[in-house]
Design a protein that fits this description.
CATH class of the largest domain: Alpha Beta
CATH topology of the largest domain: Rossmann fold
Number of strands: 13
Strand content: 25-35%
Low-confidence stretches: none
Distance between the termini: 36 Å
Bound molecules: adenosine-5'-triphosphate
Helix content: 25-40%
Strand order of the largest sheet: 5-6-7-3-8-9
Number of helices: 11
Number of domains: 2
Amino acid sequence: MDSIVTVRALRKVYHVPEREAGVVSAVASLFNRKTREVVAVDSIYFDLPPGEVVGFLGPNGAGKTTTLKMLSGLLYPTSGEALVLGHHPWRRERKFLQQITLVMGQRTQLWWDIPVIDSFEMYRAIYEIPHKQYRHTLDELTELLELAPLLRKPVRNLSLGERMKCEFAAALLHRPRILFLDEPTIGLDVTMQARIRAFIKEYNQRYGSTVLLTSHYMADVEALCKRVIVIHHGTILYDGDLLGLVHRFSPEKTIVVELREGSFDLSHFGRVIEQDGARVVLRVSKDDTPRITSQLLANLPVLDLTVEDPPIEEVIGQVFAQQEVA
Ligand SMILES: Nc1ncnc2c1ncn2[C@@H]1O[C@H](COP(=O)(O)OP(=O)(O)OP(=O)(O)O)[C@@H](O)[C@H]1O
C-alpha cells in the first residue's frame, strides 16, 4: 500500500544559546553570542501507510515531539525530506492543514475563558468547515466522547480528563486523515486513559485515519499499536511489530507457576522474581524455557503454568539500556 507519510533522512538541529552564570557573562554574551548544537533528530527514515496506528516510543528527549512538530508543519527541518499526503508540511498549505491534526497532551488549543462550543465554532470558521458537515461531525464526536454536558462550560472549569476529550473533539472537527498524537493521555487517571484509548481505536476503525502516537504509557501502545518505531538520541533503533520488539530485545521469558501446595524453593529452575505462597513467578532464558517448563511439570504438583513475555515497559527499558552501554 502507498505511504501517506514518507520520512527520508529527516534531521533537526537546535542552536541553543550558551552562556555562563553571572552578570558579566550576561553582558559579554550580548556581544559575543555562543551557541551549542543539539541534534534532536538525526537522519530518520520511515513510512506510514493509510489507516495504520503506529506507536512512536522513546525516553525523554529522544526526539519524538520534534519529529511530530516537523510532520505537522510547526518546525522546519535542518535537512532531509518529509512528505505528508504529498505535501511538505512546513509550507503549511491550506489543503495540508485541513487533512492533519496535532494533539499535544501538555498543551491546550481551546480558549480558556469561553465555553467549549465557542472554541469549536472558531475552529469551524478557521478550517472553513461547511455548516452541515460541522453539525454532523460535532454530533458524532459528542456521542463518541459524551461531550453533551461539557459543551456550554468554560474550559477553565473542566477537569483535565474532560478537557482532553474536548481537545480531541476540537482537533477532529475538520475530519483530518492523519492524527499526530503527542502524549494524549498524560496525567489522566486510569479510567480516563482507557476512555481516550478506546476513543482513538474507535475513531481509527470508523474513519480509517492514520495515527502516529507517542505515549509513555505502555497500556496505550499495547492497546492501539501493532507497529512501533523506537527512537533514542534522535535515531531510530527499531521499526516493526510490537511483538517482534519483545522477541528481539528480551532474552527472557516469565513462567508463572501455581502449585497445589506451597512453599517450594524454585530458585534452581530460574530467577524467582515473586513468590506468594503457592504462586511463583520465575524468569528464565528464552532458550531454556521449554526444558524448564517440562521439568516443573514433571517434578512438582503444578495446578497451573503459564509462559509470558516480560512486561513491555521492561523490554523498552532494556532496549534503551543496551543502547547506553553500546
Ligand atoms: N526548542 C528547543 N530548543 C532547543 N532544544 C530543544 C528544543 N526542543 C527540544 N529540544 C531538545 O531536543 C531534544 C529532543 O527533544 P524532544 O522534545 O523532541 O524529545 P521527546 O522525545 O519529545 O521528549 P519527551 O518525551 O520528554 O517529550 C532534547 O534534547 C531537547 O532538550
